[in-house]
Amino acid sequence: MKIICLAAMAAAGAIATSAAHAEDTEAPSDITISGGATVISDYRFRGISQSNKRPAIQGTATLSHNSGLYASVWGSSIDDYIADNSTELDFVAGFKTNVGQSTLDAGVTYYYYPNSTFPFSDFFEVYTSLSHTLGPVTGKVGVTYAPKQQALSLDGISKEDSLYLSGDLSAGIPKTPISVNAHLGRSFERSYLTFGQKYTDWSVGATYTWRNLALGVSYVDTNKNILAGTRNVSKAGIVGSLGVSF
């Protein structure tokens, strides 16, 4: 019996070695699939809570090609004052490429609120950003624009547009699993997306990464008081998150 078992183990090992060798000799795939899930204490979008300062569950999946093309879907639970079905889905298609020592990223995002009873809920934005890494520090500047759409109007009849400019800094702390980040953004148009306000938002935070888990904490604030019911959804707050990636 031991001889049979040893023979079987040897055969299995030979098969595994052959399979591993075959995998090593295969050309790497041009397509990469990644994703993750996150539990967050407050879903903030450009400084404004989309979950009425309550926890949200979020998930994402991305399909990337080595040409730089990518497509992703991202979803989150939200509150009824954003869309009355309490779900947001973002469909993204973009292209990323190197420009010298920097990275250019451009694409379009479609915001979809399934089964919403609001007459006009869904809208889209186009975005572009340029990032550059120097040592452990990465800086990024971005422009996001939503052309005039009825979903962005304050009265539900006219059409409004939206312009958002942002700047981000992030850095990994050497010899630690901790990274830090800072964000500054400005919304220039008065639309449903901004609750009819022109305002500035900012945040600072840190993330601790262990294997495929990430624990984050950040301070988020704006320079406006925006009410949704009785809550100031633009008020300063501490946001915590726990995410897993695959």
Q: Care to describe what's here?
A:
It is a single chain. The chain is mainly beta. It has a single domain (29-245), classed as Beta Barrel (Porin), CATH 2.40.160. Helices cover 10% and strands 57% of the residues. The strands form 3 sheets. The chain has a 12-stranded antiparallel β-barrel. It has a two-stranded antiparallel ribbon with strand order 2-3. The longest helix has 24 residues, at 2-25. The chain is globular, with a radius of gyration of 22 Å. Mean pLDDT is 89; it is low at 1-24.
Short précis:
With 246 residues, this protein is mainly beta. The chain is built from one helix and 16 strands. Helices cover 10% and strands 57% of the residues.
